[in-house]
């Protein structure tokens, strides 16, 4: 079934104001892999400002030509659509390379002068977006220099915005400290804390599914929902990111950010308006309502694992502890599963089970909402226990879409039941160019719409909810860290976590 119903366009995409797009970490992986391909896609669809410049900042400067060549190579490697040379040239022509190192404050004074000249030449009106595509340790030092030199000060109608990548802090205390530091330099409305999950179509669609339809919200609560499962399973191992990952682990890397974005969209109360304040307040409230567990509870309600070598498809993966930059005694988890509860009227008594891991047999990101079973089996051929479970699945990757699982009658003279799935897949209905997911977010930063960005309070509420797990796991060390084989479904303890509640994870296929 591919006939789309009449479409309602709720947004009118307009070109952003003239501006400078200043990227710190211009020579790095993120700039090449995601930021530039997104700018390319925006340029290809006519959504970059007419008056625009890209300033690539690095600690060790390169010439404009070298930076442009390297960004062009990046585009060829990472663009999500065939690169049209004319479009690429138009974009790269706007790129200027500047050297600035927070360890040398004078380099920021020089940067300010160059930026101002460039802005006059390009008539960008002084609007600036500073994108920190750097390691997190550089967020505060760079922001301090931008603040000291006045580059972030909004004046004469010109806006100044600061885009901060994840990870935002490494625990509750460091996230608070970073928020405090940034908020001394800029105001909250100038900060865009990016989480690339919010650039994904299906993730944004959770809001539309829930609040633009009348039929789901009445059953979206503890009376009808048994529990919620949020899964982000990955096939890839840690690869060359050993040094970052070993200090981070699966919980910090994925849960307070990506999985909590999914959780908050599924669990939030309806906002009174579709604007940044209302939506972000509801998201922050639901995260703040996650019950804070004691360390003992956290240990009981969690599972952590670390992968051993194995084969995934054609790829042989070695033990995590043999990864480059990872020590042989590392107790860093590459898999985490948690049981959380939300203390409010809608969700009291409804567990949220979260799981995420690397080097697993299947790549799958989905939210599965398990509805309560029909209370009694009037079709006596099938007992209540044997009925197919009622699920709504929100698929984020690899299949984007929504599916419902329910019981139906098998054709024939007798009443025999079978579970079936009713599926909506994006690609069947909508023809969209493949995107990086960052386009929406970068475009939103340029038009000043921060609905899809994290506010200080939700970042802190997220860390507060995972802090007991971090503390308990740190104290436990190797004790309780389960090994699992690469290419498997993960540690067996994850099954146990649900089994003791009389539940099972939905089978991924
Ligand atoms: C990143 C994590 O934020 O998200 C990675 O640092 C992870 O470890 C990635 O692989 C997952 O993103 P996606 O979009 O592939 O689900």
TrEMBL record:
Keywords: Carbohydrate metabolism, Glucose metabolism, NADP, Oxidoreductase. Pathway: Carbohydrate degradation; pentose phosphate pathway; D-ribulose 5-phosphate from D-glucose 6-phosphate (oxidative stage): step 1/3. Coiled coil: none annotated. GO terms for cellular component: cytosol. One of its GO terms (biological process) is pentose-phosphate shunt, oxidative branch. Its EC number is 1.1.1.49. The active site is at residue 258. Residues 207-506 form the Glucose-6-phosphate dehydrogenase C-terminal domain. Substrate binds at residues 196, 200, 234, 253, 358, 363. InterPro entries: G6P_DH, G6P_DH_AS, G6P_DH_C, G6P_DH_NAD-bd, NAD(P)-bd_dom_sf. Pfam families: G6PD_C (PF02781), G6PD_N (PF00479). Residues 22-205 form the Glucose-6-phosphate dehydrogenase NAD-binding domain. One of its GO terms (molecular function) is NADP binding. PANTHER family: GLUCOSE-6-PHOSPHATE 1-DEHYDROGENASE, GLUCOSE-6-PHOSPHATE 1-DEHYDROGENASE G6PD. Catalyzes the oxidation of glucose 6-phosphate to 6-phosphogluconolactone. Belongs to the glucose-6-phosphate dehydrogenase family. This is Glucose-6-phosphate 1-dehydrogenase. It comes from Bradyrhizobium erythrophlei. The lineage of its organism: Bacteria, Pseudomonadati, Pseudomonadota, Alphaproteobacteria, Hyphomicrobiales. The gene is zwf.
């Amino acid at each position: 079934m591919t006939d789309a119903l009449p479409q309602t366009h709720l947004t009118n995409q307009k070109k952003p104001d003239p501006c400078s797009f200043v990227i710190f970490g211009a020579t790095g992986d993120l700039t090449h892999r995601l930021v530039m391909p997104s700018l390319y896609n925006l340029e290809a669809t006519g959504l970059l400002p007419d008056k625009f410049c890209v300033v690539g900042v690095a600690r060790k400067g390169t010439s404009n030509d070298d930076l442009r060549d390297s960004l062009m190579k990046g585009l060829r490697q990472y663009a999500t659509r065939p690169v049209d040379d004319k479009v690429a040239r138009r974009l790269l022509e706007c790129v200027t390379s500047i050297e600035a190192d927070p360890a040398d404050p004078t380099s920021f004074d020089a940067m300010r002068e160059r930026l101002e000249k460039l802005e006059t030449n390009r008539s960008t009106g002084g609007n600036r977006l500073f994108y920190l595509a750097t390691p997190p340790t550089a967020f505060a030092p760079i922001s301090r220099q931008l603040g000291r030199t006045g580059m972030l000060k909004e004046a004469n109608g010109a806006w100044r915005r600061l885009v901060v990548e994840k990870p935002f802090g490494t625990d509750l205390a460091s996230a608070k400290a970073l928020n405090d530091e940034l908020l001394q330099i800029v105001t909250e409305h100038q900060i865009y804390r990016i989480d690339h999950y919010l650039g994904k179509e299906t993730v944004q669609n959770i809001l539309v599914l829930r609040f633009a339809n009348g039929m789901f919200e009445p059953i979206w609560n503890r009376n009808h929902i048994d529990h919620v499962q949020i899964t982000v399973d990955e096939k890839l191992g840690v690869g060359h990111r050993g040094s970052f990952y070993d200090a981070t682990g699966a919980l910090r890397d994925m849960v307070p950010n990506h999985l909590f974005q999914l959780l908050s969209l599924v669990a939030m109360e309806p906002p009174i308006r579709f604007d940044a304040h209302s939506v972000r307040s509801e998201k922050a409230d639901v995260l703040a309502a996650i019950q804070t567990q004691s360390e003992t509870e956290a240990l009981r309600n969690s599972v952590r694992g670390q992968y051993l070598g194995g084969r995934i498809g054609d790829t042989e993966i070695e033990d995590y502890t043999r990864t480059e930059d990872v020590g042989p005694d590392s107790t860093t988890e590459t898999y985490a599963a948690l049981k959380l509860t939300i203390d409010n009227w809608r969700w009291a008594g409804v567990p949220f089970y979260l799981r995420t891991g690397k080097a697993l047999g299947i790549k799958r990101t989905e939210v599965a909402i398990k509805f309560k079973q029909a209370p009694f089996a009037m079709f006596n051929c099938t007992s209540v226990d044997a009925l197919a479970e009622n699920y709504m699945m929100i698929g984020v990757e690899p299949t984007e879409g929504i599916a419902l699982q329910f019981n139906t009658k098998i054709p024939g003279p007798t009443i025999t039941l079978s579970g079936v799935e009713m599926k909506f897949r994006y690609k069947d209905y909508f023809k969209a160019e493949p995107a990086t997911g960052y386009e929406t977010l970068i475009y939103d930063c340029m038009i000043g719409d921060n609905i899809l960005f994290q506010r200080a309070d939700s970042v802190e509420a997220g860390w507060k909810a995972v802090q007991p797990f971090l503390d308990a796991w740190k104290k436990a060390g190797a004790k309780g860290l389960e090994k699992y084989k690469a290419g498997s479904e993960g540690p067996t303890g994850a099954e146990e976590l649900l089994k003791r509640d009389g539940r099972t994870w939905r089978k991924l296929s």
